[in-house]
Amino acid sequence: MRHSEGTPGSDGRDLGVQWRSLVHGWAAGRHLHCEEDTVSVSLRFDLADAGRAVTVRFMTTTKLLVAFMTDGRFLRGDQLATAAAAANAWNTEQLVPMLSVWDVRGPRPCIAGVCTLPLNCRMNQPEFDSLAGDWVEQARQMFVRCHQVFQL
Q: What's the 3-state SS for the chain?
């Protein structure tokens, strides 16, 4: 059976072409404000349990839609090992690697969540909304855990 003959997701949109529209649709359904530039769409949501906000920046590579999530806090040099341990614990427990210590060699490393999706897939708005909602919920849990357990 060809994809267009009623297979799941056949009413989906080509992610490589429609990702911005899908992100805006998801954000609008949650009353989140988007900021857009030539390469990305960013939005913020409150992380009440940790007293901060998380920024999700959607962008593409040649083959992937990437959701890069950070709480905007930078790590001090003495926090890098703790942050690496937190990332390792989270990724092991969740069985889905997504937390990392980003830009370790840079002047301002941070903890970040990264989720990806192939650009050649097709998704309708409800499917994308569900997936993006799952990513945000994972990010909430991840950053709250980093704050409460690891004091990051």
A: CCHHHCCCCCCCEEHHHHHHHHHHHHHHHCCCCEEECCCEEEEEEEEHHHCEEEEEEEEECCCEEEEEEEEEEECCHHHHHHHHHHHHHHHHHHCCCCEEEECCCCCCCEEEEEEEEECCCEECHHHHHHHHHHHHHHHHHHHHHHHHCCCC
